[in-house]
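S1.2 Input.
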Amino acid sequence: MTTKKVGNFIIFGSVAVGGFLAGTHFQTHKFYNYNNIKIKRRPGLPLFGTVSAASPVLIPDAPQTNVSRVSQIMKYGFPSLDNVRSFDDYVLSYDRRNRVAHWVFEHITAESVKHNPEVDRSKCEFKPDESIHHYFRSENADYKKSGYDRGHLAAAGNHKSHQKHVEQTFFLSNMAPQVGKGFNRDSWNRLEKHVRKLTRVYSNVYCCTGPLYLPRRESDGKYYVKYEVIGSNHVAVPTHFYKVVVGECPDGKLEMESYVMPNHMIDNDVPLTSFQVPPDSIEKAAGLLFFDNISRSKISKINGKKN
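S1.3 Output.
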């Protein structure tokens, strides 16, 4: 072996051993160091990413501008920790396979839903969420001529305090294909308005919204989960949508309401209470745990009935 080859071999071996030792130290050390920011190791929580629309939910020890708002919105726990993204006034978990969020969480008050003459919804535009990898995000073209509305999960009407807040509700990561007439523009809108009215009763309202893909019994007697997909990105069309809401009473008591609505035309005469279901039925169907930081025994009422 030549002197040059021996030298190269020694250099390569040193780099490999050094890399192994550094990696071992990195894994066993109490902190990760990301761009000179120390982050405690907390398995399961998402780390930083390069984004242009939303932001990943960051580790509490890292400096960030919206950490207090995120912690306030998610006060009672995350339903899951899959692809969690934070905006200025709401937080979501994105389903990259279906191109629709798993869930969207909001914290609203009488102040946040109050009409602000400086906020103009007509200036808002539906736009793709570029914080989502282009393999997995939905585009406006997916909805075009699909027959479905781009239905808000975090309702635009819940975020009237700032123009930026309402504009951020128009990212397509906050949308799901919804039947327009008879659902999105009618009964679903009635439910959104009902949630806003709860801010007159409760000092704080926490709302979790998302899609469901429920099984249906076919002619052969078996149950199948079937749903349409639209556009070249195959955006899933949910069979149903849910809302789970917790209100904080002025005396500190907590009350919960939970709803499931089928994604089709609904007569406006059907009362919203007919869509109330036990919250655990939604959790089982969605594979999520809502308000996990609250013991159900601490909730005084569920769907208007004493718990």
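S1.4 Remarks. The helical segments are 3-28, 67-73, 140-143, 163-168, 180-184, 187-197, 279-286.
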